[in-house]
């Protein structure tokens, strides 16, 4: 589930699988030496694949050979030129488009049955009466239970053309018979704004998890809401945000920068330069902004931070960002697959490239994250390596550096109390989520009279609740997992997960952020202004 992936110090590889499809006709009357002719590079690969198809002694899936070949080609380019196989295109497209057509439920495959965690707010399932804890047993006569059914099979049965209906059989605890529920499929947003709420009377908070087609619309709605609630300053949380569409990042930056300020420029192999400037539409040009970043903030996230930092707008808070300064263009390959090929580099307004070196190959490039950990950079800003040759100066005289990510104005070390192997394992394994779900199943009505606001601000998870989680772990794992040293942190995770399963819509972040040292630092900076 979404919250199982949050707040973990994982290296987010910004790239998504890629390659080049090679095709063409083969004339077998040509001499073999033409296969290796220097002016037939494309034919060389085409012919080899066709020779294998027609003449190789065993049956071979040449589609898989093509995938291996094109990935091998791209491995020799840069880490972010990538191939998207046909079978992955729908998922990738939906993720970047920002929506899909479905029934709108968050669910587990729990004990071989679809268990609804909660229907999505204002979605078709909620309107049809689906509730948290419901089990969806059948869809249009097809069974949706059993050990052999995986999530992809379930999703295929629940998805369909927009405005079509799916007839569900639903088991609900306490009801003597299965319920018949008809749901009309609709567009379901894949949210890229996780949360938007007020941290203080003047400081609003917006968490953006990626830059998809729908992100600006979500962001603008969140910004307008916070302005209406009195926000004079905004904390824009881009931690663990791997990026996305460049133009979406530009439109978000435009909300903060004055007219005609340079946002960024790109340069391709021919030296052609394209510049992007702020327009007159910004609604938060006078307000202060804090951008929260960490080592997993990449690409479009760095465009936002770099544009604001280089224009002396606001404050960048956190740790050095990922360091991706390459621009990809998605190109259809005609067979349902696509390639995202690096076509240019982008530069921040002062002229710096923040792309990390990748001369030593992809493995070395991705392992650099672990080198940052081992060097102590995540705990001490003095350990950040900078080159004087990559020093730049903003209009206000602030020194900034290129060559490998955005270095924050205010450094906040990684919080080892919240990011350690035990907590990472508990979140990644799903144990906390399953435990909370099972506890809710005992009696969901216990929380009927608790409002979202009251739960977030005043509800206390009991010690008995937390200790029974330890018993839950002992019964379900062969290894001896104990969290005595991280008791308060686990308690916080449990409350945040409870909030998410009961209320959704950013409740996890509102609870979890109450122990966040980076947000505490932003609040402190805001109070000093």
Automatic annotation (TrEMBL):
Domain PDZ, first and last residues per copy: 89-152
CDD domains reported in the protein's UniProt record: cpPDZ_CPP-like (cd06782), Peptidase_S41_CPP (cd07560)
SUPFAM superfamilies the record matches: ClpP/crotonase, PDZ domain-like
Transmembrane portions of the chain: 7-28
UniProt keywords, alphabetically: Hydrolase, Membrane, Protease, Serine protease, Transmembrane, Transmembrane helix
Gene3D superfamilies tied to this protein: 2-enoyl-CoA Hydratase, Chain A, domain 1, 2.30.42.10, 3.30.750.44
InterPro entries xref list: ClpP/crotonase-like_dom_sf, PDZ, PDZ_sf, Peptidase_S41A, Tail-specific_protease
One Pfam match: Peptidase_S41
Ranges in coiled-coil conformation: none
Family: Belongs to the peptidase S41A family.
Protein name: S41 family peptidase
Organism: Hyunsoonleella aestuarii
């Amino acid at each position: 589930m979404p919250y199982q992936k949050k707040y973990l110090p994982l290296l987010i590889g910004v790239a998504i699988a890629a390659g080049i499809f090679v095709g063409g006709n083969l004339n077998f009357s040509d001499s073999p030496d033409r296969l290796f002719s220097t002016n037939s590079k494309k034919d060389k690969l085409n012919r080899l694949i066709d020779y294998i198809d027609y003449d190789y002694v065993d049956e071979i899936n040449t589609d898989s050979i093509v995938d291996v070949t094109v990935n091998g080609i791209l491995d020799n380019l840069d880490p972010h030129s990538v191939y998207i196989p046909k079978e992955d295109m729908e998922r990738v497209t939906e993720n970047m488009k920002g929506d899909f057509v479905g029934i709108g439920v968050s669910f587990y495959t729990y004990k071989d049955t679809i268990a609804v965690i909660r229907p999505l707010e204002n979605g078709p399932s909620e309107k049809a009466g689906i509730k948290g804890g419901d089990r969806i047993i059948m869809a249009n006569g097809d069974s949706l239970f059993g050990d052999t059914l995986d999530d992809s099979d379930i999703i295929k049965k629940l998805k369909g053309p927009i405005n079509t209906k799916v007839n569900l059989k639903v088991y609900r605890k306490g009801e003597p018979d299965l319920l018949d529920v008809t749901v009309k499929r609709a567009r379901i947003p894949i949210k890229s704004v996780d949360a938007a709420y007020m941290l203080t009377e003047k400081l609003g908070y917006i968490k953006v998890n990626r830059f998809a087609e729908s992100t600006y619309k979500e962001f603008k709605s969140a910004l307008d809401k916070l302005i209406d609630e009195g926000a004079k300053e905004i904390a824009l949380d881009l931690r663990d945000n791997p990026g996305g569409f460049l133009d979406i990042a530009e439109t978000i930056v435009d909300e903060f920068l004055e007219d005609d300020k340079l946002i960024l420029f790109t340069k391709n192999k021919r030296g052609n330069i394209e510049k992007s400037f702020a327009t007159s539409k910004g609604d938060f040009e006078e307000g202060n902004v804090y951008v929260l970043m960490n080592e997993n903030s990449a690409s479009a996230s760095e465009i936002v931070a770099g544009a604001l930092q280089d224009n002396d707008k606001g404050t960048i808070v956190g740790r050095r960002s990922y360091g991706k300064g390459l621009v990809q263009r998605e190109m259809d390959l005609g067979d349902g697959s696509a390639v995202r090929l690096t076509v240019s580099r982008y530069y921040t307004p002062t002229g710096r490239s923040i792309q990390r070196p990748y001369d030593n190959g992809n493995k070395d490039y991705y392992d650099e994250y672990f080198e940052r950990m081992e060097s102590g950079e995540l705990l001490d800003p003095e350990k950040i390596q900078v080159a004087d040759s990559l020093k730049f100066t903003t209009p206000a005289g602030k020194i900034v550096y290129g060559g490998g990510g955005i270095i924050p104005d205010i450094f906040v070390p990684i919080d080892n109390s919240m990011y350690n192997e035990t907590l990472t394992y508990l979140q990644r394994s799903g144990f906390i989520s399953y435990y909370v779900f099972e506890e809710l199943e005992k009696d969901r009505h216990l929380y009927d009279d608790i409002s979202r606001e009251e739960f977030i601000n005043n509800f206390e998870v009991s010690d008995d609740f937390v200790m029974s989680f330890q018993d839950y772990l002992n019964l379900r794992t062969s290894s001896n997992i104990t969290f005595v040293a991280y008791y308060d942190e686990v308690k916080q995770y449990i409350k945040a997960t409870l909030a998410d399963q009961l209320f959704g819509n950013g409740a996890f972040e509102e609870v979890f952020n109450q122990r966040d040292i980076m947000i505490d630092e932003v609040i402190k900076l805001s109070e000093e202004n």
